[in-house]
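sry for the spam today, last one i promise. C-alpha cells for design, 1157 residues
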C-alpha cells in the first residue's frame, strides 16, 4: 500500500504530518503563519490560516500539474487575398474558442494566480484526429461550423488551426494562498472540509470543497480538479440556519452543525450536481445537549455533543444519508474526523492527544477501541532537566463576555507529568487530568490566554531537583478570540489583562523561539484530518508505543563486527559437526538406491468425448527417483466407461503447464502436454475444495520442475506471460528456441507459475521485471519465486510480499423502446437478456453475479459506469438502433434500444515476489531490452500513467530495479502504449490511435527532445507497439499486426507499414528481433481457442518479417514478453542433398494469418 499522510495542527498553529510508514510527526516547515484547521485529500491539503484566508498545499509528484490553454485561428478564402483574416460580419471571431462564440486572442490569456507559470510560448497543433497535418496545422471545411478535414479541397472556403500553450502549477509542497476572484469577498472562513472525489471520476481529480464563514454561511468551491487544483470561484449555498462546522465525505455525504446544536444533511448530491439541492434536519444525539462537531465518511457519521460525548449514526448510506438513529460510544473527545476507508481519528478532551479508532471494518463500522497515537515530533529535544507546562485556565463561554485574559506559566519536573496512556480500551480509565488549555468543540473557541505584557508579568518558578530551571516565556497570540474569561491561578501569580474581542472560532499559540513542549510532555493537538490517509484494518502501523520500540531496538543493537565474528564461529562449528557425522559412516552402502511413492485422491474429470460432463475419477501421481537422483513420474486418471475400468495417463516430464481454471462453481485446473496443446483440449480436473486444488497444483508443479531440473527463481532470460485471469507464468527458453531452420516447437515449452496477480508484465535480459495490476498499480520483481498457494520448498522464504489487486466486474442493463411505455425492460423474444454481459448471450443480474473466483471479494456496491467508450447521457445510457450495434451517448429518432453499464469493484489479496512502486498508477511500461553481456549501468524505462501521461524512470539499475523517481515527458494528448528498443528507439501510441517516435533519446538526454508524428496505416487506429533490435511492430484495434518498413539508424522513423497478420491481440519484439504474439481464433483438432501464444518463424536479418507461425500454449492467454531472451541461437548447418536422413518438418502455417481458420 502506498505511503500516505495524516495531517494535524497543534494548539500553537503549527502543521504536522505523520506518514503511514513513519514513526514521528514531521513539521510543515514552509508554513509562513499559524493555521487553525486543515482538511486533507490524497493529492493535497487545504487549510485556514490565522489571517482567515484559505491556503492549498499540493503534494509534490513526479507527474506535474499542467493545464492546456487553446484557441482557434479562423480564416476565410476570398478571390483576391486567398485565405486571410478578413472574415464576414456573420462569421466567428478571428481567434475564438472551438465553438466560435467566445473571443480568445492570444494576449488575453492570463495566469490565474502566482502559483502558475507558463511552460513555453504559443505553438500550432499539427495533429488532427490522429493524423499529421501540414506544417502550418490547418484543417479545412466548406463553412463555419462544419466537418473539418486535413486535406484542402476545391470547395474549402474556410479553415482553422489550433494554438496551444501549457501552464504549469509550480507551488508544490508549499502553502499557496487561494486567490479571490470576486469583488465582494465572503466573510472570513472558520471551517473547511474537502471530499467528494468518489462522486465522479471525470474530470480527473475532482474535489468538493465546503467552507463555513464566521457569520454561519456555507460556501462551495467550484471547478476543483487535477488540472485546476485551486478551483475557480466560491458559490454560496442557501441554509436553514447558521452553521458552525461542516464535514464532507469521499462520496455524497455532507453533514453540518447549526449554532442551536442541531445537524443538517445535504441531499441531492450526485454526479451532475456535486453541491446538492436541499438540506434535511436531524436532531442532536442528546435532547438536552446540542451537537458541536460532526464527521462523515463513505457510510458513517460520527458526532460530538457539548459534553464531549461521542456518538455514532447507524443506517447511513448513499440511499439514506440521514441514517436511522444514534448510538452512544465510549470516550470523551473535543474533535473527531473520518478518514479514508471510514477510519476514525479524534482528539481527546483531557489529554489533547490524537486517538485512532481500532477495529473499523466494512462489517463493523463503529470499531472496537480508541488507541492513542504516541509518536514523537521531529525536533524533539532528547535531554532536558525540566519541562514547562501551561496551566489549565478555564472559562465558561456560555456565561457571557469578560474583558480580560490571563496567563500563568509554571515550570515543573518531568516526574510531575502524567503521560497519555498508550492503549485505551472502551472501559473508562481514571487518570489525573493534565493541566492543559481546553478547547470547546462548539465553535472551537480556545480558552488559551493572551500575555500582552511579558515584561510586566511576574511568574513563580517552582524548582524540582537540585538544578534550578529558568522560566519559559513563550509569546501568546489570540487569533480572533471570542471573549475569554480570565481567572486567577492557585499560585497567586499577578497577571495583566488585555482586551480581546472577535468572532473567530479558533485560537492558536504563536511560535516561540524554543520548543514549547517539554521532553515528557506529549503535544497538544487542536485539529486532525485523515482524508488523505489510506489505512484499513489490516494496515501495520508504527504509530503506537514507538518510544518503547525505539528503546528496545537500541538496547539490542549489534555492531557489524560482532555479527561477522558470530557468523564465522557458527560456520566453523557446523563444519566440524558435519565432518564428524559423515566420516563415521562413509563405509556403509546407500540404504535405498531408488524410491517410489504414490499420492492418490478422488477428483472430477471433464471427459474428452461427447456429451462432455464432469465425472468422478480416481487420480494418482506416481513419482520415482533414480540412482543418480533424477526424478520422474506418471499421472493416472482411473475412470469407468460402460462399467469397464479404464485409465488415462501422462508422463510428468511431458507436462508443459498447470493452469488454475477458477470459476464460481468448480475448483478446477488444466494439465497441458504438447499433444493436448495441439488439440486445444487439456486434461481438466476439479477438486472438492480450494485447499485440495492448491495442494495438488503445488505438488504437481514441484514434480514437473524436479523432472526437468528447474529450481529457484526464473532466469534473467526467461519469457514471461499472463493469462486472462491475471496468473503469471514463466518459461526458460532453450538455446534452440530461435534456431534456424528447425527451432524448438513452442508447444513443448514448459511454463511454471509465479505467485502474484498482474495485467501486464515487461522484462529485460539483466533481470529487471516490472508488472502492472488491474488497478494500475506498478510492481517490481524482487528476485524470489513461489508465493500464492506455493509453500515450503516450492517458494522462496524471502522476497515474498503481499500483493493486492482491484478490478471492476461489469454487467449491462438493456432496454427496448415501445410506443406505449417508452423504454422498458420488456424486450422482443429474440432480444438479449435485459440484464446481461457485454455480448448479451449470458444473463447477469446484480443478485446472481458473483466475483470472478473465490479469491475475489466484493469491496463496493453496484454503480453506474459513465466511462464507457462512445459516451453516455446523464443517467449512463447509451443508445443504438438495435442489438448489437454501434452505441452513442445521445438519443436520436432512430434509436429503439439502449443500454447502460454497471460496475462493481472486487479485491484480491495474494502473495508473490513483487514490491509496489508508488505512487503513480500506470497503464503501460517498457524496459530497454539489453543484450545479455550488457554493462549498462542505468537502464532506460518508460511508462504511461493511467491518465495517459508519458513518464521516464530514473535510477533503474540491476541492483535497484525500482529506480528512484519519475521524469515527466510532455505530450499534447494522452497516450496508451509505449515501447523502447535497441539504441533507445522510443515509439508510442496515442489514445486516438496515432503513432509517435521520440527523437534524440540517449543516456545524456534520457527523455529526448521532441515527438515525431508517424502516420498510421490507412483507416486503422493503432493500440499497441513493440520495438526490438531493428524491428517495429504495432497492433491496431481490429487485430491486425503491422511491420514498420525502412527503419534504419539514419532514418529511425521508417517509411511505411506492411501488414503481417490478423487476429492478433498483443505483440512482443525481443532483443534479437524475435516476434511473439497472443493470437485469437486459433484452430486446434478439438476446439477453437482465443488467446494463444504464437512464435514467428524464419525471422533473420535478411527477412525480419519472418515466414510463418508456430502455435504454443493457449487459449486464455492475454500478455507475453520475450524482451529478456537475448540468447543467440546456435548456428545449424543444413545437411547436403545427398544425405538420406529424413528431416523433421513441423506443420506450420506459411501465410500471413496467425489463425488456422
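last one done:
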Amino acid at each position: 500500500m502506498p505511503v500516505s499522510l495524516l495531517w494535524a495542527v497543534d494548539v500553537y498553529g503549527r502543521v504536522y504530518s505523520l506518514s503511514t510508514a513513519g514513526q514521528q510527526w514531521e513539521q510543515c516547515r514552509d508554513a509562513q503563519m499559524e493555521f487553525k484547521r486543515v482538511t486533507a485529500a490524497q493529492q493535497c491539503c487545504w487549510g485556514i490560516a490565522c489571517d482567515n484566508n484559505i491556503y492549498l498545499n499540493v503534494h509534490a509528484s513526479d507527474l506535474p500539474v499542467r493545464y492546456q490553454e487553446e484557441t482557434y485561428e479562423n480564416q476565410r478564402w476570398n478571390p483576391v487575398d486567398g485565405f486571410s483574416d478578413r472574415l464576414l460580419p456573420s462569421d466567428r471571431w478571428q481567434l475564438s474558442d472551438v465553438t466560435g462564440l467566445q473571443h480568445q486572442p492570444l494576449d488575453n490569456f492570463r495566469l490565474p494566480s502566482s502559483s502558475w507559470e507558463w511552460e513555453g510560448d504559443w505553438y500550432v497543433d499539427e495533429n488532427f484526429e490522429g493524423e499529421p497535418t501540414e506544417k502550418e496545422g490547418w484543417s479545412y471545411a466548406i463553412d463555419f461550423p462544419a466537418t473539418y478535414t486535413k486535406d484542402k479541397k476545391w470547395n474549402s472556403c474556410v479553415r482553422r488551426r489550433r494554438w496551444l500553450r501549457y501552464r504549469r502549477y509550480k507551488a508544490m509542497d508549499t502553502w499557496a494562498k487561494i486567490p479571490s476572484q470576486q469583488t465582494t469577498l465572503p466573510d472570513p472562513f472558520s471551517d473547511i472540509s474537502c471530499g467528494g472525489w468518489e462522486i465522479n471520476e471525470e474530470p480527473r481529480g475532482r474535489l468538493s470543497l465546503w467552507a463555513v464563514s464566521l457569520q454561519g454561511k456555507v460556501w462551495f468551491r467550484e471547478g476543483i480538479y487535477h488540472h485546476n487544483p485551486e478551483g475557480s470561484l466560491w458559490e454560496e449555498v442557501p441554509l436553514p440556519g447558521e452553521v458552525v462546522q461542516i464535514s464532507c465525505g469521499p462520496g455524497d455525504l455532507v453533514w453540518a452543525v447549526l449554532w442551536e446544536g442541531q445537524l443538517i444533511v445535504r441531499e441531492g448530491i450526485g454526479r451532475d450536481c456535486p453541491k446538492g439541492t436541499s438540506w434535511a434536519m436531524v436532531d442532536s444525539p442528546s435532547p438536552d445537549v446540542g451537537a458541536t462537531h460532526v464527521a462523515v465518511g463513505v457510510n458513517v457519521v460520527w458526532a460530538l455533543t457539548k459534553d464531549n460525548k461521542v456518538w455514532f449514526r447507524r443506517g447511513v448510506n448513499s440511499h439514506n444519508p440521514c441514517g436511522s438513529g444514534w448510538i452512544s460510544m465510549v470516550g470523551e473527545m473535543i474533535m473527531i474526523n473520518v478518514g479514508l476507508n471510514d477510519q476514525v481519528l479524534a482528539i481527546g478532551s483531557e489529554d489533547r492527544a490524537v486517538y485512532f479508532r481500532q477495529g473499523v471494518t466494512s462489517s463493523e463500522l463503529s470499531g472496537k477501541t480508541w488507541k492513542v497515537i504516541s509518536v514523537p515530533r521531529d525536533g524533539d529535544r532528547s535531554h532536558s532537566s525540566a519541562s514547562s507546562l501551561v496551566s489549565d485556565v478555564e472559562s465558561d463561554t456560555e456565561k457571557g463576555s469578560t474583558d480580560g485574559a490571563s496567563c500563568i506559566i509554571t515550570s515543573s519536573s518531568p516526574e510531575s507529568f502524567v503521560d497519555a496512556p498508550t492503549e485505551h480500551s472502551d472501559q473508562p480509565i481514571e487518570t489525573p487530568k493534565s493541566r492543559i488549555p481546553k478547547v470547546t468543540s462548539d465553535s472551537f473557541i480556545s480558552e488559551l490566554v493572551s500575555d500582552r505584557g511579558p515584561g510586566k508579568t511576574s511568574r513563580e518558578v517552582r524548582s524540582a531537583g537540585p538544578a534550578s530551571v529558568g522560566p519559559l516565556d513563550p509569546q501568546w497570540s489570540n487569533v480572533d478570540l471570542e471573549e475569554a474569561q480570565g481567572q486567577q491561578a492557585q499560585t497567586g501569580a499577578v497577571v495583566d489583562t488585555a482586551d480581546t474581542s472577535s468572532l473567530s472560532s479558533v485560537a492558536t499559540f504563536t511560535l516561540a523561539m524554543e520548543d514549547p513542549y517539554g521532553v515528557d510532555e506529549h503535544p497538544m493537538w487542536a485539529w486532525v484530518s485523515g482524508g488523505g490517509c489510506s489505512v484499513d484494518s489490516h494496515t501495520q502501523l508504527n504509530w503506537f508505543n514507538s518510544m518503547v520500540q525505539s528503546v528496545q531496538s537500541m538496547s539490542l543493537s549489534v555492531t557489524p563486527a560482532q555479527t561477522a565474528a558470530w557468523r564465522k564461529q557458527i560456520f566453523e562449528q557446523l563444519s566440524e559437526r558435519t565432518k564428524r557425522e559423515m566420516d563415521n559412516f562413509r563405509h556403509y552402502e546407500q540404504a535405498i538406491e531408488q524410491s517410489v511413492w504414490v499420492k492418490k485422491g478422488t477428483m472430477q474429470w471433464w471427459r474428452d468425448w461427447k456429451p462432455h460432463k464432469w465425472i468422478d475419477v480416481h487420480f494418482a501421481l506416481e513419482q520415482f527417483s533414480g540412482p543418480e537422483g533424477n526424478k520422474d513420474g506418471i499421472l493416472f486418471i482411473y475412470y469407468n466407461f460402460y462399467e469397464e475400468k479404464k485409465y488415462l495417463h501422462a508422463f510428468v516430464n511431458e507436462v508443459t503447464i498447470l493452469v488454475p481454471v477458477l470459476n464460481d462453481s468448480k475448483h478446477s485446473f488444466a494439465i497441458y502436454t504438447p499433444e493436448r496443446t495441439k488439440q486445444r483440449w487439456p486434461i481438466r480436473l476439479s477438486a472438492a475444495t480450494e485447499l485440495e486444488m492448491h495442494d495438488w497444483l503445488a505438488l504437481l508443479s514441484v514434480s514437473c520442475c524436479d523432472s526437468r531440473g528447474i529450481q529457484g527463481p526464473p532466469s534473467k532470460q526467461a519469457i514471461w506471460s499472463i493469462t486472462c485471469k491475471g496468473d503469471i507464468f514463466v518459461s526458460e527458453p532453450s538455446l534452440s528456441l530461435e534456431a534456424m531452420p528447425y527451432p524448438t516447437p513452442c508447444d513443448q515449452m514448459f511454463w511454471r507459475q509465479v505467485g502474484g496477480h498482474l495485467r501486464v508484465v515487461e522484462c529485460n535480459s539483466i533481470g529487471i521485471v516490472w508488472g502492472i495490476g488491474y488497478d494500475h498499480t506498478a510492481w517490481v520483481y524482487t528476485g524470489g519465486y513461489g508465493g500464492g498457494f506455493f509453500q515450503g520448498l516450492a517458494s522462496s522464504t524471502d522476497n515474498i510480499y503481499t500483493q493486492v489487486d482491484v478490478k471492476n466486474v461489469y454487467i449491462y442493463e438493456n432496454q427496448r423502446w415501445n410506443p406505449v411505455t417508452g423504454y422498458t425492460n420488456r424486450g422482443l423474444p429474440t432480444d438479449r437478456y435485459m440484464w446481461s454481459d457485454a455480448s448479451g448471450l449470458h444473463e447477469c443480474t446484480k443478485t446472481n453475479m458473483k466475483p470472478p473466483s473465490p479469491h475475489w471479494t466484493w469491496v463496493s456496491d453496484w454503480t453506474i459506469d459513465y466511462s464507457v467508450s462512445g459516451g453516455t447521457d446523464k443517467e449512463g445510457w447509451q443508445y443504438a438502433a438495435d442489438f448489437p450495434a454501434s452505441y452513442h451517448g445521445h438519443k436520436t429518432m432512430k434509436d429503439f434500444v439502449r443500454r447502460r453499464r454497471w460496475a462493481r469493484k472486487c479485491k484480491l489479496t495474494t502473495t508473490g515476489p513483487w514490491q509496489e512502486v508508488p505512487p503513480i498508477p500506470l497503464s503501460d511500461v517498457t524496459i530497454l531490452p539489453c543484450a545479455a553481456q550488457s554493462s549498462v549501468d542505468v537502464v532506460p524505462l518508460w511508462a504511461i500513467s493511467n491518465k495517459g501521461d508519458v513518464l521516464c524512470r530514473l535510477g533503474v539499475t540491476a541492483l535497484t530495479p525500482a529506480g528512484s523517481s519519475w521524469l515527466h515527458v510532455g505530450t499534447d494528448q494522452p497516450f496508451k502504449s509505449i515501447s523502447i528498443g535497441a539504441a533507445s528507439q522510443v515509439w508510442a501510441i496515442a489514445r486516438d490511435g496515432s503513432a509517435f517516435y521520440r527523437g534524440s533519446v540517449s543516456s545524456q538526454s534520457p527523455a529526448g527532445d521532441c515527438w515525431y508524428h508517424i502516420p498510421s496505416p490507412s483507416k486503422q487506429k493503432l493500440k499497441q507497439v513493440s520495438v526490438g533490435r531493428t524491428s517495429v511492430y504495432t497492433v491496431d484495434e481490429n487485430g491486425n499486426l503491422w511491420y514498420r518498413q525502412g527503419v534504419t539508424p539514419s532514418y529511425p522513423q521508417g517509411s511505411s507499414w506492411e501488414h503481417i497478420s490478423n487476429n492478433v491481440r498483443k505483440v512482443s519484439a525481443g532483443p534479437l528481433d524475435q516476434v511473439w504474439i497472443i493470437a485469437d481464433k486459433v484452430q486446434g483438432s478439438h476446439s477453437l481457442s482465443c488467446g494463444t501464444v504464437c512464435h514467428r518463424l524464419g525471422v533473420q536479418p535478411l527477412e525480419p518479417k519472418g515466414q510463418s507461425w508456430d502455435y504454443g500454449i493457449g487459449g486464455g492467454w492475454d500478455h507475453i514478453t520475450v524482451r529478456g531472451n537475448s540468447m543467440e541461437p546456435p548456428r545449424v548447418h543444413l545437411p547436403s542433398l545427398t544425405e538420406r536422413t529424413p528431416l523433421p518438418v513441423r506443420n506450420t502455417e506459411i501465410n500471413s494469418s496467425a489463425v488456422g481458420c
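The first strand starts at residue 5 and ends at 10. ok im logging off now
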